[in-house]
Amino acid sequence: MPEVKSTCCYCGVGCGVVIEHDGRKITGVRGDPDHPANFGRLCTKGQTLHLSAGTSARVLFPELRRGKSGARVRATWEETLDYTAERFATIIRKHGPDAVAFYISGQLLTEDYYVFNKLAKGLIGTNNVDTNSRLCMSSAVAGYKATLGADAPPACYEDIAHTDCLFISGSNTAFAHPILYRRIEDARRANPNLKTIVVDPRRTDTAREADLHLAILPGTDVALCNGMLHVLVWEGLCNADYIRNHTEGFEAIRETVREYTPVAVSEICGVPAEDIVKAAKWFAESKATLSLYCQGLNQSSNGTQNNAAVINLHLATAQIGRPGAGPFSLTGQPNAMGGREVGGMANLLSAHRDLANLQHRAEVAKLWGLPDVPARPGKTAVELFDAVRTGEIKAVWIACTNPAQSMPDAGPVCEALAKAELVVLQEAFANTDTARYADVLLPATTWGEKEGTVTNSERRITRVRAAIPPHRKSLHDWAIARDFALALGEKLGRAEDAKRLFNYPTAESVFNEHRETTRGRDLDITGMSYAMLENDGPQQWPLAEGETTGKVRLYEDGRFPTPSGRARFADTKYRPTAEKTDARHPLHFNTGRLRDQWHGMSRTGRVARLYNHVDEPVLAMHTRDMERRSLKDGDIVRVSSRRGSIAVRAAASDEMRPGQTFLAMHWGSQFMNSAGANALTIPAVDPVSKQPELKHAAVQVEKLELPWQLVIMRMVSAEEAPRLLAGVQPRLAGFGYATAGLFGRDDPAVILRAASAAPMTDAALAELDDLFRFNNARCMVYRDARRGISKRIMVEAGRVTAVRLTGETAARDWLKEVMIEHTSAEAVRRWVLAPVSTLPAAISSTRGRIVCNCLNVSESEIMAEVAQGADLPALQGKLKCGTSCGSCVPELKRMVAMRKAA
Ligand code: SF4
User: Which among 407, 491, 615, 713 would be 20 to 30 A from 386, CA to CA?
Assistant: First the structure.
């Protein structure tokens, strides 16, 4: 079977993959043993990439809606680009270049990013080009620049093996960066003295395994770091030589932290004062301290200061520029780094240049052969959609992202998309929440079809390679932007300019131009080429012309890319979260990631087994908060903020502090009857980075009385699953509560769970039966009209292939397993329509959640062994769980520990 080396398209770890294919279809994937990010390992998401590569629910050809009403219709690329260019040109002529905007994505490749950036800033003359990286990494960028002088993570993955103290802040690494977490596990095994401090309001799997968990209150990170710095100053643990020789600004922050005594900080953060002292001492006294941080610091209205406050600790203790030491921001998306490198944001220019810098603008204009590039600041993500809503921006072009779901306070964003004169969406998948607003839908290539490069969290650039040709009429993202630029150039009377600016026959030609823009910059990659990346493997930047390898870690000589050559302490001050809790909204609402899902699930949501760990959106709450509201696990609740409300099930979680709630950010209106978490979040942003505060809102939780319940399940083929889900999607809004998804393993099934105040009509139920292809002739039917109960079980080839339960749905989990396990319908025939309370235990017991997705090992199987005294090695020996990708190992350890504690 032919194979191609490429990268995983999910998180910023940037694991290398080997894609197996038959020239037409992707047939398998495995970790690339030679890739320095993962050395052959993949997590649950990476291991199932090939299962997400089916072609159903892909955008197949360009579609066009002329005018605001009516449906989109199929069109050719030529007429679509001609129409779109004409609309853009008309708007630009009438309202100026800032009346159009581009909103792109950290999922794009560096080459895609580069062409979009040049299209906006070079050809059109607007800086209105921003990206979903604004929601992810912009506070890390601003934090690095404010302190170290450049947007360059100074450390690398290898440092995990060299550190003696890991300070993990605002990162559930075990879930969000699993392959990095495997390195942390390796480092612990190799160095039993390694101390781990985790700062997180939640007791995540990452926090549970720490030597010290600081469960701070949301948004109090600066207070904690200032408190730690206070301890360092007053206990004489700062490195005076390093501060004197390599930094500036220490006096101001030393004065500021005077007030941040451990006792005062303990009050603000809600953690014991002695733990703050302990953390500070471990940080300073360790031979090498490495900080890993992510969205918990970044997604905050104080995100820049959160990042800078951690970096202050490193500068004060000289924990930087040595093996195992440094502040290391983990990138959320696979190529947020690449986007930053080409300046694909509203405030940046190519090669880490700043838009606000006159000389940088002149350099870019010269490189592009233009008289100038625009100086007016572009709109950042939240500002951009606000300007679309008010009509200041008339046309918005969205590429490879789903703002209708992922932007905070999704309601006004959807309003903006509905009101815009023109919405262009360039996408691989047809069913995202944003797709319904698109006037122009452009089919883009996706993972396995694309060519280019990406940069991972440790500044390492890898070649992304195509295994199979583009699907149907799809084009590469950079090529779409190029072709549009050529069409727009003609409409604007600048055809020759456009031909010169966008003379890109291949992705490599784009890379080569980008490479030249980095000459002499901090990220100089003039020594790199496609050939080098292919022959010698992935490379870290900087790697200037004449050099043969990149720089493993930065600032080893204590010199920083600032005018003085010194790093700058930031004078960080604690500011509370933007939104306060009060009597009407008394609970903190936090968002984050699950282990087995990615972003808005447009890809992972197509893989049945990725639902087996967590199968629907659930609000995690503290037991006390549930008791106060008379809630029990599984009750449907309304979660309301000052902006909107959603209906989800609630469950008690020992991860939560009292007064706090958590909901995964993955589910949107493709899979539930609301926009999900972002119906509740706030649009407040950090004043410097403009990154929104996605990690905190104030909410209320109340029980929802929805007595009429419905569950429908249908076995389908892998190709049919996304199509049936797409058919279910428009019906979700008709229920008080509804979620849809998949379950199963090799043979997927679609599931719809819904509840309402009143029963559905027979006609509405019949419509659902049609959609789920219930065939009366093959159905067992039970109906009790008086009690509002009806059951339909469809049997084909001796197996249960579809189930519809209304009124009484308690048998759903058992029937789900009957379907998954292909249990003979004959064996369960007499029970399938019986009340669940009458079922013998042996029949009705279920396996429960699948904890180890690779080896298909369930919670009940693991707990049965744990109850017999099994520890982790025994579980791995007998059940084999946790012996493949390792993503479930932290959870297995937790299960063993819980049993020991009981
Ligand atoms: Fe992909 Fe998992 Fe590696 Fe992230 S850790 S790049 S999701 S395989």
Answer: 491
- Residue 178 alpha carbon to ligand 1 centre in Å: 7
**Can you tell me the distance from the alpha carbon of 445 to that of 442, in angstroms, rounded to the nearest whole number?**
10
% pLDDT > 90, the chain: 90
Distance 47 CA to ligand 1 centre (A): 9
User: β-pairing, 326-329 with 289-293?
Assistant: parallel
Percent of the chain whose predicted confidence (pLDDT) is above 70: 100
Nearest C-alpha to atom 4 of ligand 1 is from which residue?
A: 11
**Which two structure tokens, joined as six digits, stand for 146?**
């404010």
Q: What is the mean pLDDT of residues 203-227?
A: 97
| 268 membership: H or E segment, kind and range | helix 262-269
Question: From start to end of 564-679, where are the E strands?
Answer: 567-568, 587-592, 618-621, 636-640, 645-652, 660-664
Of the chain, the end-to-end C-alpha distance in Å amounts to 51
DSSP 451: -
Of the candidates 501, 472, 507, 509, the one whose C-alpha atom is nearest the C-alpha of residue 484 is 501
CA distances from 673 to 648, 668, 716, 819 (A): 9, 8, 23, 26
Residue 830 class from Cβ within 10 Å (0-12 exposed, 13-18 middle, 19+ buried)?
exposed
Whether 15 is in the pocket of ligand 1, judged by its Cβ within 6 Å, is yes
Mean pLDDT computed over every residue of the chain: 95
Residue owning the nearest CA to atom 5 of ligand 1? 179
The secondary structure element, H or E, covering residue 186 is helix 178-190
**Cα 452 to ligand 1 centre (Å):** 18
CA nearest neighbour of 701 among 734, 658, 750, 670: 658
